[in-house]
Amino acid sequence: MKKFIALLCALVLVLCAIPALAEGREKPEDKKVITTDDVIGAETVFKKYDNKFYDAASTQPGTVVRLDYTTTAYGAEQPGWVNVYLPYGYDENGTERYNVIYFLHGTNETQDSFIGDEKAKNALDNMIEVGVTAPFIMVFPTYYYDYETRSIDMEAFSTKEMRNDIMPAVESAYRTYAETADEAGFIASRDHRAFSGFSRGCYACWHQFFHNLDVAKWYMPFSANISAADEMSLEMPVEEQIQMLKDALNAQADYKDNFFIYAACGGKRDMMYDVNAALISAMVADTDDFSYGLNPAENNLYYSISGEIHQTLMSRFYFYNAFDVVLK
What we know:
alpha/beta; eight-stranded mixed beta sheet; single chain; 9 helices; Rossmann fold
């Protein structure tokens, strides 16, 4: 009888637990919130997530696959490849469509550098699982057309390889909101596409903004200023950087009032902090082209400052903050 009662109690406990499990896990409280109002002349907020929760393995893991393509962006045809993150539940025979983010790595890194880190992959999985953001596809290209020599042609990468080769390869293979994987399809689905990058990848992200505003509404440049395509330097005066932004907006006038930039950087321990904050300060001050705030219906710029170091892996914290706005 005692064994029967014990088994009955155990069964009751299991049955009681089932509804809780079915409801899924809940988003934990943010561990630290940093508010700053004296760096760029406007308030910035950085929320650091619960590392123990988000960096641990998710119960709904996505998958990472390699996708090969060819490009003639630099002359003769050559092979290229990207990593593609597919969210949990992605069904190649399904009909659901997904937002897409193109993320560009830092100096001397590769397509594996961010998504190949377990913490980064787990963070994406967990953020989707607990509803920080809707499920998305994330693509990890490289802007090095010759990795051995670290050769870069940012203009060709932005205007040719990304538009003509990478995006068509990815969005014909996976279900983004582009109904056709061509310029018309990309333009029609621009509200569901974002570019992001860290450090030198941030330079690359800014150059996507310069050339591809017609195919992407959202930009998440992390931890770098703007540089000319041929120099990748910290030395460009902020006035020249602002002029590059204004020239890009004027050249893409149809989309001048329909974009959103969510920038982020580390604090004093991040070597890009000073130049990055100077750029954002100038953008905040330029009220002709930029409006600072978190409402995409009224604003097109926001900034988050962490206390983190300059490391690509920190991008997982910045995505966590940016997803309050981007692709909502």
